[in-house]
Amino acid sequence: MNQPRFANSAMHSSGRHQRRTFIRQMGSGFFGLALLHRREHLFAAEATGQAKRCLVLWMDGGPSQWETFDPKPGTERGGPTKVVQTRTPGIHFAEGLPRMALHSESLAVIRNVRSPEGDHQRGTYLLHTGYRQIPGFPRPSLGSIISHEQPTKQMPGHVALGNGATFGPAYLGLDHAPFSIRSASESLATFRRLQQRRGRIELVRSLSAEFDALHQDDALRRRNQLLQQLDQLPETPFIDALDIAKESARTRNLFGEGEFAESCLAGFRLLKAGLPFVEVQLSGWDTHTDNFRQTRDLCQQLDRPWSAIMETLAAEGMLQETLIVWMGEFGRTPRINAQNGRDHYPDVTPVVLAGGPIRGGRSIGATNETGAVDGESHAVADVFATIFWAMGIDPQRQFTTEFGAPTQITDGGNPIG
Amino acid sequence: MSAMVSVVLAWTMATSGDHPVDRILKDAQASARVAVAERCDDDTFVRRSCLDLIGRIPTEDEWRQFRDQPDRSRWIEQLVARPAFAQHMSEVWTAAWMGFANDGQADRELLRMWLQDQLQSDVPFDRIGQSLIAGRGDSAVNGPVNFVLQHGDDAGVQVARQFLGVRLDCARCHDHPFANWTQDDFAKFSRFFSLVEMTDISRGNIRVTDRLAEPDEADMPRFLNGGRPQTSQWRSELALWTIRSRSFARNFANRTWYHFMGQGIVDPPDETHSVQQASCRPLLEFLADYSRRHEFSIRDLATLICTSEAYQRSSADPITDDNAVLLFAVHPLKPLTPEQLFDSIATAYQLKPDASERREFVQSHRGNVLDQDFVLTWKYRETCQQLLDRMTTDSLPTWSGDLDSVFLRLLSRHPTPAQRELCRTHSIETVAFALLQSNEFVFSH
Q1: Could you give the percent of chain A with pLDDT greater than 70?
Q2: How far apart are the first and last CA of chain A?
Q3: Which residues of A touch B151 (CB under 8 A)?
Q4: Which of A388, A407, A403 is nearest to A28 (CA)?
């Protein structure tokens, strides 16, 4: 067995002390000022206010950067993938994303994120929490953090649409657990059933009344609160948002058909209803075989709904308030294997940001002809710090775990400039 | 002596003096001026003891048996001797040691079945611990080696936590913020498992052995008290050192106490080693001594705890304050585990579901979402979504029996007059469903 591999994240105790003093002294005033000066590249200077909502488009399986936002036609590793001209001079997308190419002026493509995790489960954990997985020390996921920082009344603040993995709130509390929706229509049917059975909840509560009166216990209080929340949920916009049939034919047509498109539309409606965090998942990116045909299909599923999200958010005046993050657990290898596929490649983990205070029409970092990061690279923690900054959440914020240990919101990340 | 006096005497013995646990707690409660809740009634006692000892609510027959002969001590002794006790406790400990997922190379169920056999023959807990820490063999046939297989590099941390009540986790990345553990402690303690070798024998079968090596002085492991192993049988030495340490006995006592009482003497029990945080130190030391004297018999310790008045306090006490909970003057509410819930529903509805249905139910109730977060705990952890799923369940079997049978089989009591009135306008199935979701059913009290 190997020795534990966490030595590199070690801090000498004196160093830790200095750092804490530093953070205490600087406080949040410093945070705002310092970042404002440094962020002019990625963040629009004219952006007023911070993003209020966050939408993650999660590419489950690990999306190929070669076939999406970092194509290299005509090179040895580039494969047969062709490019499409975007609205931004010098930036090309893969041919499968013609609609998104028209939105390039709103997108910031980050090409130099490097992750240490090449395993699906561990990579998914890292890109959902910003921390490497350590047994016995669970970290809250992005959605749970945002739900915690921007709490909603009565509605779940952290919703995930799709079949992929989601991660919990850890020490932030179960109010911020993900509400997982496999499909909007299925979930809607469940809520309709609940509405028909409100009498049941009423009976449950009446039959519990004598027991409740005799007991004083936090667990009991919490369960009664949940029952009440459930009882009142049908009166919030949450359930209505899942009913995509209520959307105009024009908008539905804009999003197109298919499971992912419907989830995107439901996701958009949930954000509009006031939810602070929605993740929509598109599975199938683990293209070890037949990479080129598979990624073409996936891009086709992705291109239209994402483009529809950009357009509807803009039309509703919500784009400036909504941060959009496109990512998956890692990128894919330069090498094309014998099955015409690409394998896991965490050395380049593609990320695209849009909306909120993000200034589009740019790429950050670069890969060379062999597909490796050229020059400086960013850690996953930097991506998380960037997201928090864009959401108006202090990237240096500290939490206290249930064991009383202080811990940082990111694993030492700095917002990407 | 008049009959009246002897009744009063017997009552005094039973309620305040005779049981060593109660003697110790009585002093602690008196000096903290904590008001003590009443003794729970017989119906509550039957339900609580069945859930804690055999993992499900009582059947109507069991309830009647106890009502006919309401001798609580005999009832506990009788439950502890049942195979269901070994099975239930094996699930409790396996969840602590292996988590809930069954997705790695390790065969969680094989380990659990092995443990059930051990508990059935009342094998001392220190020997069980020894097998888990130092076991060698093939994972497909040897239950305990699956512990090391499951945890790999992390086995040292797990041994510290599960058997010594020491959380080394924080020292993984930096020196522990409060306790004494340093990163060096973590690294050196983890090294006890660095000679483990895992060899693929066949599909689903991995052989766990130890390499022979003569490492440099600098690569040697170190016990948490600073000592070094004397031979190259590192894991065997670690196992011996662990089970002989005082922390092992305290940890065993505190975790067992936590299971029954819903509140540790040191809480959370993962940090039992921090004895200065014990709410009643003399009780912890007494239980540790008792465990050692009784050769770490889980059966004996369970009997001792469950026959105490402390275990039999009512949970219904409107004057609850934090001190009352910390000094066990009132019984806390514990949410049923998915396993308890499934077996209790099957008992109430008199169903005979198969093992795969049970697995599916447990898995869906744990939820993939929270696997990562889950430590063994009696904290209430239901989410809005889980509650929604429960409330919208459709397929419930029909109920054969009257209103009293619903209350007896689900709640081990008759309905109150108000509840009779409430239920008059509902079908028996609807009432059964509502009781199944009621607070009184989903909590052990």
Answers
A1: 88
A2: 40
A3: 135
A4: A388
**B224 and B95 housed in the same domain:** yes
Res A47 pLDDT > 70? no
Contact A168/B439, CB-based, under 8 Å?
no
- The verdict on a CB contact (< 8 Å) between A170 and B191 is no
Examine residue A23 and state whether it is found in any structural domain, yes or no.
Answer: no
Nearest CA in chain B to A10: B173
**Do B228 and B361 sit in the same domain of this protein?**
no
- Report CA-CA distances (Å) from A194 to A189, A231, B306: 9, 9, 41
In a domain, B75, yes or no: no
ipTM: 0.89
Residues from chain A that touch B416, judged by Cβ atoms under 8 A, are 210
Residue B344 shares a structural domain with residue B228: no
* DSSP calls for A7-71: GGG---HHHHHHHHHHHHHHHHHHHHHHHHHHTTTTB-TT--S---EEEEEEEET---STTTTS-
A398-400 and A158-161 beta bridge pairing:
unpaired
Q: Which domain holds residue A112?
A: 40-184+248-408
Does the pLDDT at position B113 exceed 90?
Answer: yes
Q: In terms of CA atoms, which chain B residue is nearest residue A6?
A: B173
Element (H, E) at A384: helix A380-390
Element (H, E) at A156: none
**Chain B partners within 8 Å of A170 (Cβ):** 372-373
> CB contact, 8 Å: B169 with chain A?
yes
**pLDDT classification of A115: cutoffs 50, 70, 90:** very high
Secondary structure (DSSP) of B20-46: HHHHHHHHHHHHTTPPPPPBPPHHHHH
- What is the residue range of B371's domain? 335-444
Compute the 3-state secondary structure of chain A and give helix, strand, coil in percent, each to the nearest 5.
40, 15, 40
Top residue of B44, B148, B169, B173 to mutate, by most chain A CBs within 10 Å, is B173
Size of interface A-B (CB pairs under 8 A): 176
Q: Is residue A415 part of a domain?
A: no
Verify whether the Cβ–Cβ distance A207 to B384 is below 8 Å: no
Single-letter amino acid code for the residue at B169: D
